[in-house]
């Protein structure tokens, strides 16, 4: 194991904690200078995020509370990818569960790692178009409300700290940059 280009070599690993959502462990790593250390590693399940746009250039967002940082904010809908599930299918499933909408067209926007030095936590953002209302959200614990937010107001909401989570920031700001 290891990456010859970086000079870091992994010789093994041991689990400290393991659940269906998170693996915390230590990896026996040999550094380029030959020193060996136990490096802490967190592995999170792959997650997807959906940036759903309507014909008026608005994005569907959830107003939700995150209890760990004790903070409210606007977020794009999303969630975890099930084992063996296609990420685009997972993004549609999460969108429907959290908002009651389905996207007529789905394309992959960007894939990123929010904590690359500490965790393996791949996040995949999809862009959805042609929204279709299919019913009420089935996961009522995800947010206090949902709303269509004009794309033009996103930079102001970011500056005001009302959009602050990594998936929403990366997805929205990448989309706005690519749109120019």
Strand content: over 45%
Number of helical stretches of at least 4 residues: 3
Largest sheet: 4 strands, mixed
Structural class: alpha+beta
Provide mean pLDDT, rounded: 93
Arrangement of strands in the largest sheet: 1-2-3-9
Overall morphology: elongated
In helices, the fraction of residues equals: 10-25%
Q: Which spans have pLDDT < 50 for at least 5 consecutive residues?
A: none
The count of strands amounts to 11
- Supply Rg: 19 Å
Distance between the termini: 42 Å
Order of SSEs: EEEEEEEHEEEEHH
Give structural notes.
The protein has 180 residues and is of the alpha+beta class. It contains 3 helices and 11 strands; from the N terminus they run E-E-E-E-E-E-E-H-E-E-E-E-H-H. A hairpin with a 4-residue loop joins strand 5 (58-66) and strand 6 (71-75). The longest helix has 14 residues, at 166-179. It is elongated and about 60 Å long. 22% of the residues are buried.
In short:
By secondary structure, the chain is of the alpha+beta class. It is 18% helix and 46% strand.
Features:
180 residues, 3 helices
Itemize the secondary structure elements and their pairings:
Blueprint: E1 9-18, E2 22-30, E3 36-44, E4 47-52, E5 58-66, E6 71-75, E7 78-80, H1 87-99, E8 101-112, E9 119-120, E10 123-133, E11 145-150, H2 154-159, H3 166-179
Parallel strand pairs: 3-9, 4-10
Antiparallel strand pairs: 1-2, 2-3, 4-7, 5-6, 5-11, 8-10
């Amino acid at each position: 194991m290891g990456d010859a280009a970086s000079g870091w070599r992994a010789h093994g690993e041991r689990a400290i904690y393991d659940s269906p959502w998170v693996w915390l462990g230590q990896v026996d790593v040999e550094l380029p200078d030959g020193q060996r250390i136990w490096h802490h590693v967190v592995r999170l399940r792959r997650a997807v995020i959906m940036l759903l746009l309507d014909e008026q250039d608005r994005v569907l967002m959830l107003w939700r509370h995150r209890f760990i940082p004790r903070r409210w904010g606007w977020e794009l809908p999303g969630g975890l990818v099930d084992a063996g599930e296609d990420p685009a299918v997972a993004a549609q499933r999460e969108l429907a569960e959290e908002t009651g909408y389905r996207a007529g067209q789905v394309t992959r926007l960007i894939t990123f790692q929010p904590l690359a030095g500490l965790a393996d936590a791949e996040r995949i953002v999809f862009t959805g178009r042609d929204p279709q209302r299919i019913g009420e959200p089935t996961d009522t614990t995800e947010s206090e409300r949902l709303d269509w937010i004009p794309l033009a107001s996103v930079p102001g909401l970011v500056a005001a700290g009302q959009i602050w989570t990594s998936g929403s920031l990366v997805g929205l700001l990448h989309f706005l940059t690519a749109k120019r």
